[in-house]
Write a structure and sequence with these properties.
alpha/beta, Carbamate kinase, VC0802-like, 2 domains, 8-stranded mixed β-sheet, 13 helices, 36% helix, binds adenosine-5'-diphosphate, binds aspartyl phosphate, ATP-binding, Aspartokinase, nucleotide-binding, transferase, Asp_kinase
């Protein structure tokens, strides 16, 4: 697409809009770093609002009193809006964005009219308000245009993990955005989409990075910048690992693998659309916006410093055939089918003659459904309370650093990657490894 100025996309996550001071910082960043281009700004829910809305929704579903946590969410947004002296939208919703009050009334309304069943569908209708509220406040603080992405970013009906309808989304965005962008910065929601029948969907927790990539792909953006509370893409999460180092430049391939193994700084679906259209992804610090950060793009580089990744709350499930026959392709087909059906993603797998093991995220609900399906055919053992560690580009020292003193329940290595599952330490606070 041709733009009078290059189109850049900025994505601000929960930490970068956690309160009024953070939003003032966002405004400064946009003024100082976004002025030489057309700018689309993708914003997530403020701070931990998505978790708070999940909690309210669960209480409402359970028929319990949710008035206090809901009031806390409403008060919080109203206080931030007041502090920033933003009024919260046009009085007549037909003329422009809704007001903050409109949105808060809508969420209350939806919570009081929940119906039995369709848990995931109703989850999306409620939890999506975090992004709607945040974008309204940020758009007003910036004096920018507020765009409801839901009629444009089309997904199917896979609630809580909407699958993007790329041709329709591209057509919609190309028909709408260039004109809006030519008038100034546009602010829209991360994490949200909409179905053809007008229902809201969400793209999977922490999916706002992915939204930025979807917009970039469809609109042919020059670059995407995700503003984080870290100096860039590091070789490990600095909240868990000591002595981290920043990668100045990383290839798409390497980043996809890190995100896949669980480096939570970038949502795993973000990279592919950018790589396909060769759009660079810049990871920069909103605490030090002038600093270099990390450039993820089509590049070649030498071996990177070993990357350490931890996934918590894991579950190791082993299936044995009941008659001691070999684990066959037919048996594996049944196991994979059941795992897909209950939506348990496999992070690691290993098989022996009569048993097959997988490491997945722990969900009591999904595990129970899996056991119900497969108990008749297999003897199933499982362990919970586990951690999965991955070391990319490992060497002997990095393996020693993580495994010393650990009992490994399962381990696996390829030429570049070493992975193991072990028990999470009991009653030990998060520690720097
Ligand atoms: N390899 C890594 N490099 C940098 N940060 C990482 C890495 N792995 C995990 N993180 C964590 O990711 C966090 C930033 O991502 P996230 O919380 O999703 O940001 P936001 O929600 O603001 O977009 C950091 O605070 C850090 O704790
Ligand atoms: N607010 C959503 C989407 C998101 O991406 O958030 P963040 O950018 O703060 O990770 C969530 O918490 O899942």
């Amino acid at each position: 697409m041709q733009y009078p100025l290059p189109l850049r996309i900025f994505k601000f996550g929960g930490a970068s809009v956690k309160d009024a001071a953070a939003i003032r910082n966002l405004v400064r960043i946009v003024q100082e770093h976004g002025s030489s281009s057309q700018l689309l700004i993708v914003v997530s829910a403020m701070g931990k609002t998505t978790n708070a809305l999940e909690e309210v929704y669960q209480l409402a579903q359970a028929g319990q009193d949710y008035s206090e946590p809901l009031a806390a969410i409403c008060d919080f947004h109203q206080r931030v809006a007041q502090e920033l002296a933003v009024t919260g939208g046009a009085d007549d919703p037909l003329e422009g964005p809704p007001t903050l009050t409109n949105l808060l009334e809508q969420v209350q309304d939806k919570l009081s009219t929940l119906t039995a069943g369709e848990f995931d569908k109703q989850y999306d209708q409620i939890v999506s308000f975090g992004e709607l509220l945040a974008t309204l406040i940020v758009a007003q603080a910036l004096g920018a245009h507020w765009l409801d992405c839901r009629p444009l970013l089309r997904t199917d009906h896979t609630w809580r993990e909407g699958r993007v309808d790329w041709p329709t989304t591209e057509r919609n965005l190309r028909a709408t955005l260039p004109e809006a962008l030519s008038r100034g910065p546009v602010v829209t929601q991360g994490f949200l989409g909409g179905t053809a029948s007008g229902y809201t969907t969400t793209l999977g927790r922490e999916g706002s990075d992915y939204t930025a990539a979807i917009f970039a792909y469809c609109l042919g953006a020059e670059s995407v910048t995700i503003w984080k509370d870290v100096a860039g893409l590091l070789n490990a999460d600095p909240k868990i690992f000591a002595d981290t180092v920043r990668y100045p430049e990383v290839s798409y391939q390497e980043t996809i693998e890190m995100a896949y193994y669980g480096a939570s700084v970038i949502h795993p679906k973000t990279i592919k659309p950018l790589a396909v259209r060769r759009i660079p992804l810049l990871v920069k610090s909103f605490l030090d916006p002038a600093a270099e950060g990390t450039r993820i793009h089509d590049c070649r580089h030498g071996l990177l410093a070993p990357a350490f990744i931890r996934k918590t709350s894991q579950c190791l499930i082993s299936f044995e055939s009941k008659d001691l026959t070999f684990i066959s392709e037919e048996n594996l087909e049944v196991i994979f089918g059941a795992l897909a059906h209950v939506r348990l993603k496999i992070h690691l797998m290993q098989n022996s003659a009569i048993s097959f093991s997988v490491c997945t995220d722990f969900s009591a609900y999904r595990l129970e459904k899996l056991l119900e399906t497969l108990r008749g055919q297999f003897t199933i053992h499982y362990n919970t309370g586990l951690e999965l560690y991955t070391i990319k580009n490992y060497d002997a020292a990095s393996i020693r650093r993580l495994t010393e003193g650990q009992e490994l329940l399962l381990e696996q290595r390829t030429r570049q990657t070493f992975q193991f599952v072990c028990r999470a330490p009991e009653n030990v606070p998060d520690r720097l490894l």
